[in-house]
Design goal:
five-stranded mixed β-sheet; alpha/beta; 12 strands; Nucleotidyltransferase, domain 5; 10 helices; 311 residues
Length: 311
């Protein structure tokens, strides 16, 4: 059975993977994009430059001289019309070149579907692609609640149920982290800092229908810092606020649609404080951290699924 190469060049990470369709195992290599101290993100022109430098090394790290039997690549953030980021052109062009030289098919999908499939792969739930389920994609660029249904055209048809009306969850974490002097991206450091807090926060999330508002998190964290509250307490308040919003959105979806399988994907869901509380409230499937953060495993899985090589 062939091996499938996966490529993902997101706004945070350069990543490549190789999926062995015999034993459904994945080897990954990934590298964060460098961000200058004190900055809250990276310009697209810089992201394209760094992906161009880093991607050959990532592909070499997973290929081991093997010519793949297929390629999966993310070419845009979401399947929605108008969804576009220049950084994905690096991965798409590399996939097209490799496919052309090797005479193999390139299967193109969205970064979001890659995240969802990586989560399903990680927790052994790939069979869910054959039924309806609710997926959360919670990251630096998205805080989306999605109704996923089987599709012959794109494997997973996605209908948005709810989203953040302003700040995204990952942005809230990074802005609070940079405010506290942490390095961007701040998720892991903010989680470590929050673990030092003994305070209990009861946060009332701001919900409008199934949509949430997260901009108040940044404002509250800044006001806490200005009055001299402990950095660990500020970090814990930030994470508690994001948990409360995602939990409330989950509850609203269950009330509207009934109990469907739940899947939580995206880099923010690698935060153990948030994921543990969501599991206690709602159950659901969560990716392990290496498959929660940006990765190419999901797009390799996508290619294998559409080729009928797995499941």
């Amino acid at each position: 059975m062939p091996k499938i190469l996966g490529i993902d060049t997101s706004n945070y990470t350069t990543s490549a993977s190789m999926l062995d369709t015999d034993d459904i195992s994945v080897v990954q290599a990934k590298m964060l994009l460098p961000v200058k101290k004190g900055e809250k993100g990276i310009r697209q022109s810089d992201a394209v430059f760094h992906h161009t430098k880093q991607l050959p090394q990532m592909i070499a790290g997973v290929s081991e001289g093997v010519i793949p039997g297929g390629i999966g690549v993310s070419v845009r953030p979401r399947l929605a019309e108008g969804s576009y980021m220049p950084c994905f052109l690096v991965g798409e062009s590399a996939a097209d070149m490799i496919g052309s030289v090797c005479g193999i098919t390139t299967d193109k999908t969205s970064h979001q579907i890659g995240h969802i499939l990586a989560a399903l792969y990680s927790c052994g739930k790939l069979e869910l692609v054959k039924e309806r389920f609710i997926a959360f994609h919670v990251s630096g660029g998205t805080t989306d609640m999605l109704l996923c249904s089987p599709s012959d055209e794109c494997l997973i048809e996605i209908r948005e149920l709810g989203h953040s009306l302003d700040l995204k969850a990952g942005q809230a974490i990074d802005r609070a982290g940079v405010m506290l002097g942490l390095d961007f991206p701040c998720g892991a450091e903010l989680e470590r800092l929050a673990s030092e807090s003994c305070r209990n926060f009861r946060v009332r999330p701001v919900l409008k229908g199934m949509d949430c508002s997260l901009s108040g998190i940044e404002n509250k964290c800044r006001s806490m810092l200005e009055v001299g509250e402990a950095p660990c307490d500020i970090a814990k308040f930030c994470l508690e606020s994001i948990y409360a919003a995602v939990s409330a959105m989950t509850g609203a979806a269950i009330e509207s649609l009934g109990r469907l399988p739940l899947v939580y994907a995206g880099g923010v869901m690698s935060d153990k404080y948030i994921s543990d509380k969501l599991k206690a409230d709602h159950g659901g499937a969560f990716a392990s951290p290496e498959y929660s953060c940006d990765n190419a495993a999901g797009v390799a899985v996508y290619s294998a699924l559409v080729k009928g090589l797995i499941i």
